[in-house]
Design a protein that fits this description.
Elements: E1 5-8, E2 11-12, E3 15-16, H1 18-34, E4 38-43, H2 47-51, E5 58-62, H3 72-86, E6 90-94, H4 97-110, E7 114-122, E8 125-130, E9 135-140, E10 146-150, E11 167-170, E12 201-205, H5 215-225, E13 228-231, H6 233-237, E14 258-262, H7 268-271, E15 279-283, H8 291-294, E16 297-299, H9 303-317
Parallel strand pairs: 1-4, 1-6, 4-5, 5-11, 6-10, 7-10, 12-13, 12-14, 14-15, 15-16
Antiparallel strand pairs: 2-3, 7-8, 8-9
Helix pairs in contact: 3-4, 5-9
The chain binds flavin-adenine dinucleotide (FAD).
Length: 320
């Protein structure tokens, strides 16, 4: 084992995921402790563009048609080869749909310990979220090479970004002959819906909405505020709103000026993609809901009482 820290670069359609920068920021601080280098591992084409602001000592680029688009099979196979060959101290990635999938396969395949939902590593200890973000655990960083799936909270995106592009080194392609899954196509969500990633004001509703009929109250509030309604996963799973409105790990990242989170507990899978919001206001009947940790303002009230009252107050304030 050497002391280098690998960071898997997560990218989709030419965009590096924010969590990659968070992982790079963590890798920088960990590398100071280990004395190793931060190596960003980048699969697929367009390396120069994708690498330009990665805060890494070096980008290890692997290009192959098999790696042109993400599949867990291909990424895990390529990383298996690189880890066996280079033996890094730690391999960091986002605890996203992609990162969690790849990390799980690598852990099983290589027998490496995996720290999921990791917020930070410092001084030989890690802290991670458990129970849907309601609790934090601390533990000793394993002495052997370790896989780490990061969630936001410990580092900011800008801390993992650099003004100067790192050196790109092209790596020989590891053995990918066992890869059986091939990327075919992106399936676009149904068109015609609003794009929640560009909205300035978002009213987010969670399971606290209780039933689909109450959605009307949220729509009215969003209309009064001049925004749109988005949701946590239970609301989408119930079919009350389409997947285009889903905020979170399996949905979209949002960055509105105002995010009004109503009846949303604040699970990491939801909150990891709302940190770009300029202001978060949370409304929840549970004073211990983790969403209050992220919110600038919070109110411990019933959202079903609040929504009609707030809609009316906003309409009056606007003179309507
Ligand atoms: C791999 C994976 C991917 C996932 N992806 C996503 C994702 O993309 N997006 C996502 O959101 N989740 C995702 N999840 C699910 C996530 O873990 C949580 O289960 C989900 O975010 C919880 O949604 P919620 O906060 O609406 O519901 P809950 O956690 O059930 O919280 C409901 C909240 O409403 C409050 N409440 C109840 N009644 C009222 C009321 N009348 N007024 C005010 N407050 C009230 C409660 O106190 C509670 O805090 C994912 C999970 C996994 C494992």
């Amino acid at each position: 084992m050497n002391q280098d820290i690998f960071v898997l670069v997560e990218h989709l359609r030419g965009q590096v995921a924010d969590i990659t920068y968070v992982a790079l920021a963590q890798a920088q601080s960990l590398a100071v402790e280990t004395g190793g280098k931060v190596i960003a591992v980048l699969f697929g084409g367009n390396a120069v563009e994708l690498s330009k602001n990665l805060a890494a000592d070096m980008v290890l680029h692997v290009e192959s048609p098999v790696l042109a688009e993400y599949t867990c099979d291909a990424y895990a196979s390529a990383l298996t080869g690189l880890i066996k060959e280079k033996s890094p101290r730690a391999v960091l990635m986002g605890d996203t749909t992609m990162g969690a999938e790849v990390a799980g396969v690598l852990s099983a395949r290589l027998g490496m310990p995996l720290i999921s939902n990791c917020v930070s590593i410092k001084g030989g200890k890690f802290s991670a979220k458990i129970c849907g973000g309601k609790m934090m655990v601390e533990g000793e960083l394993p002495a052997e090479p370790v896989l780490v799936a990061m969630v936001p909270g410990g580092f900011r995106v800008e801390q993992g970004q650099a003004a100067k592009a790192p050196e790109i080194k092209t790596s020989p392609v590891p053995d990918l002959s066992g890869v059986r899954v091939a990327f075919k196509q992106y399936v676009e969500p149904e068109g015609g819906d609003i794009d929640i990633t560009t909205q300035k004001i978002l009213v987010g509703v969670g399971r606290g909405l209780q039933n689909g009929d109450n959605l009307e109250l949220a729509e009215e509030l969003a209309e009064a505020l001049g925004g749109a309604v988005c949701a946590s996963r239970p609301v989408v799973d119930q079919g009350w709103l389409p997947t285009t409105r889903l905020v979170g790990k399996s949905g979209k990242a949002i960055k509105p000026k105002l995010y009004l989170a109503l009846g949303i507990s604040g699970a990491p899978e939801h909150t990891e993609t709302i940190t770009g919001s300029e202001m978060i206001i949370a409304v929840n009947t549970d004073p211990a809901a983790p969403i209050f940790d992220l919110a600038k303002y919070g109110a411990e009230v019933d959202m079903l009482d609040l929504m009609p009252a707030l809609s009316e107050a906003v309409r009056k304030a606007k003179g309507g």
